[in-house]
Amino acid sequence: MLTHLCFCAGWSLKSKPRLSKSSPVCLLGQSYQLSFSGKQDRTVMSVSEGSLCRVVTSFRRAFSSLLWMTYRRGFPPLDGSALTSDAGWGCMLRSAQMLLAHGLMLHMMPAGWTWPATHHQTKDDLEVVDALVLDNSLRESRRDSGKHRRRSLGTALDCGSHEEWTHRRIVSWFGDLPSAPFGLHRLVELGRASGKRAGDWYGPAIVAHILQKAVAASEVSDLAVYVAQNCTVYVGDVLNLCGTSHTDLSARCRSGWKSLVLLVPVRLGSDALNPAYTRCVKRLLELRCCMGIIGGKPKHSLFFVGFQDDQLIYLDPHYCQAAVDVQKDNFPLESFHCKTVRKMPFNRMDPSCTVGFYAGSRADFQALCSDVTKALTSSQEKYPIFTFVEGHNVEEMSCTSDSFTHIKSKDKPGRIRKKSCLEEFVLL
């Protein structure tokens, strides 16, 4: 049965992909083992079954707690146009919203937070465990939670706690109205400096700079966004941006430090992902500091949040929903969270993408530099997809087109040449 229609972007069947029980699942730096070793000893098996159920539940809650931004319809017209929907063209902006939204959740919510409404879901959307595996305690919890089935997920257990208030506040910042600091109207407005208008295709490099401008102009004054230039992260520039210096890099407090969202636009192949970089992408997604990856080709951007074996796990913005009035008290939240896990092979990943990282403190940034460098240098390729360089960028690069550059590229065998910011770099 068709359950939704994506306007201007074709249709898709909302199905239940089955995750493998034999391999761990990685979701933004956290690994989940969705199987147990079946032993003959029934006592041991019961313990394993109970642990498995807890792992499955933990994964479901973590995934469903991610903020999901999709096409919307019925919002106020975008400035300079008559458009009241972004269906068919706004998927990259929606993917960028998801990336930033996750960064804000990391920044403002307690570590390990999950949306309370996901704790009372009774439907196993992931289909990773058979009913026979569920232990008695889980069956009891499912029976007890039946009374919640008729309640909106947007109001379930929304008791007015500080965490839920913050959760709702973050969602409201992405509302589809001109006053929302990270809403579609604001992002389109900021895109004009790059020559973009409502209805245009936005690439992953341009949206990285749009996010940087949006955060800088917002009320989130203790967060800074740094966009790497030419696939190079200049550590000195990051430290200046966040208000610190090399001398106190190892300090463990946030005093005098703006938390960091690091965005790195890269290109990982020509027309498709270079297979040599598959392992590198996996290693990045395994890092706790990784916020995810946005990428895609025209009219098909996705937000990658994990993987299992050779399949990427992602959130898909290509689902057109009615706009939500986030200015209302207790506006419904369910359309901002997704329960259905979607997968696709790595070889279908478009090579144009932006990788996001978060560092809450100076010490976190120091660890980020070390961990990401290790992940990059373990690649089979001779040159990493991006690098960290001490010091500052002596040239102020101004690239307003959505092209990508690398530090080095091959000209002739054995020769290396620089590429300008207006040339598109392809990893061979």
Q: What does the model show?
A:
Its EC number is 3.4.22.-. GO terms for molecular function: cysteine-type endopeptidase activity; protein-phosphatidylethanolamide deconjugating activity. Cysteine protease that plays a key role in autophagy by mediating both proteolytic activation and delipidation of ATG8 family proteins. It comes from Cyprinus carpio carpio. The chain is 27% helix and 16% strand. The chain has nine helices and 15 strands. The strands form four sheets. Strands 1, 2, 4, 6, 7, 8, 9, 11 and 12 form a nine-stranded mixed beta sheet that branches. The protein has a two-stranded parallel sheet with strand order 3-10. Strands 5-13 form a two-stranded parallel ribbon. With 428 residues, it is α+β, with helices and mostly antiparallel strands. It has one domain (66-118, 154-417).
Helix content: 25-40%
* Outline type: globular
Radius of gyration: 22 Å
- Based on DSSP secondary structure assignment, what is the total number of beta strands? 15
What structural class do you assign from the helix and strand content? Answer: alpha+beta
Q: How many domain units?
A: 1
